């Protein structure tokens, strides 16, 4: 290429300077600045059954978790002076303990900063070992089996009372308030159903009730005719079921169809709008419990409920407020630590005091919620009505 005469006469130094001005001081055209370059990306893993019979409860968990993450992004949370952007990585564990461990490893491999879940005790317990082995904090919003936090894992927490507390209150209420003398118990043999039923039996017997039968089923069963026919001959005052609402619905319908004149009680797995919707008239009079105070008495319950229904066009099924609190307690610990690195914020999580939607979140030395309350409910005129809120004493390790 021929250089113009005017440039040919300029010194080489001047030509180089002109080139630098043209291209930027580095000698190459400057790249456009990335608006997200200063953002701290924080990955929150979550797992619950998103398919199958418990999908309505699992999606409720996912909704509560997502709502907390979107709220945090909207208010512009900073961690260690950096603006944080939270991302949800949600996985379906299908209520299967084996799949739960696969999901847990997948989330670990994705380098999540923390875990919200799992939903069921039977999936939470095996997954918790994987999270602990990798030092990732885990807060379950709904796994109530005593075993979960009795394993000694420093990474395991939960934001609601456990089954030692819940079973104790249910048994006391059945024996004293309901004056049940003869009780038949059915459990689904899951970590949750069996654990809750065992605690219920101990408490009911302590209150003077007699357990006339203890039958077993699975969390996939839909026909309970044989079990109920066996129980009917024992003439119980009360049938207690340790399990979730997909089995609670056909169980209470078949119980009524067989003319078994007994009251029916479940734990938190039965306290859902879906049980009333699907069981219809057979659900009337059913008793259930839920850790915590009634939604309209929670510190932020009314506002959360209104926002949830406006956003998702459906009522809360069960654990969404607890998921919301789990996320925000985790974020609060990150802010206190000035870091989203698990090893750095874990010590802050263990001593966090967070004013949540459901309650004040403070964990004990095992990772259990301090001062957990239990509320008893009954279906009256097609709606769950709160009967009584009781305090559950801390449960001893099994």
Short structural summary:
This protein has 398 residues and is of the alpha/beta class.
Please characterize this protein's 3D structure.
There is one protein chain. By secondary structure, the protein is an alpha/beta fold. It has two domains: 40-161 and 296-367, Response regulator (Rossmann fold), CATH 3.40.50; 164-291 and 375-391, Response regulator (Rossmann fold, 3-Layer(aba) Sandwich), CATH 3.40.50. 42% of the residues lie in helices and 20% in strands. The protein contains 14 helices and 15 strands. The protein has helices at residues 5-8, 12-23, 55-75, 97-109, 121-133, 146-150, 163-177, 191-206, 225-232, 245-257, 273-279, 301-312, 320-337, 342-350, and strands spanning 40-48, 78-79, 82-92, 114-117, 138-140, 156-158, 182-187, 210-216, 238-242, 263-266, 287-291, 354-355, 360-361, 373-380, 383-391. The strands form four sheets. Strands 2-3-1-4-5-6 form a six-stranded mixed sheet, with helices on both faces. A hairpin with a 2-residue loop joins strand 14 and strand 15. Helix 7 (163-177) packs across helix 8 and helix 10 (245-257) packs parallel to helix 11 (273-279). The longest helix is centred in the N-terminal third of the chain and has 21 residues, at 55-75. The relative contact order is 0.13. Mean pLDDT is 90; it is low at 1-36 and 393-398.
């Amino acid at each position: 290429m021929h250089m113009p005469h005017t440039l040919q006469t300029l010194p080489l130094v001047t030509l180089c300077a002109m080139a630098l001005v043209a291209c930027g001081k580095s000698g190459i055209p400057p790249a456009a600045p990335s608006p997200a370059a200063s953002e701290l990306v924080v990955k929150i893993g979550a797992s619950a059954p998103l398919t199958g019979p418990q999908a309505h409860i699992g999606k409720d968990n996912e909704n509560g978790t997502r709502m907390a993450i979107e709220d945090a992004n909207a208010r512009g949370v900073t961690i260690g002076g950096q603006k944080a952007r939270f991302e949800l990585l949600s996985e379906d564990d299908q209520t299967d303990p084996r799949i739960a461990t696969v999901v847990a490893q997948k989330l670990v491999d994705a380098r999540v900063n923390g875990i919200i879940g799992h939903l069921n005790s039977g999936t939470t317990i095996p997954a918790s070992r994987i999270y602990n082995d990798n030092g990732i904090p885990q807060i379950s919003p709904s796994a109530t089996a005593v075993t979960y936090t009795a394993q000694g894992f420093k990474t395991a927490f939960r934001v609601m009372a456990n089954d030692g507390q819940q079973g104790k209150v249910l048994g006391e209420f059945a024996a004293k308030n309901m004056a049940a003398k003869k009780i038949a118990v059915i459990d689904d043999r899951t970590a949750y159903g069996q654990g809750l039923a065992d605690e219920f039996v101990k408490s009911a017997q302590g209150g003077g009730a007699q357990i006339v039968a203890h039958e077993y089923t699975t969390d996939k069963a839909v026909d309970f005719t044989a079990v109920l026919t066996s129980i009917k001959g024992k003439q119980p005052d009360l049938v207690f079921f340790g399990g979730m609402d997909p089995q609670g619905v056909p169980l209470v319908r078949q119980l009524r169809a067989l003319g078994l004149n007994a009251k029916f009680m479940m734990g938190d797995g039965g306290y859902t709008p879906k049980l009333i919707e699907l069981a219809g008239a057979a659900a009337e009079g059913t008793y259930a419990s839920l850790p915590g105070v009634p939604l309209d008495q929670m510190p932020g319950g009314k506002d959360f409920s209104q926002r949830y229904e406006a956003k998702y066009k459906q009522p809360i099924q069960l654990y969404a407020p607890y998921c919301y609190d789990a996320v925000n307690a985790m974020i609060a610990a990150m802010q206190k630590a000035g870091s989203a690195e698990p090893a750095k914020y874990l010590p802050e999580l263990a001593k966090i005091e967070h004013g949540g939607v459901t309650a004040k979140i403070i964990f004990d030395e095992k990772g259990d919620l301090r001062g957990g309350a239990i509320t008893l409910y009954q279906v009256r005129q097609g709606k769950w009505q709160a009967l009584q809120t009781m305090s559950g004493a801390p449960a001893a390790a099994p």
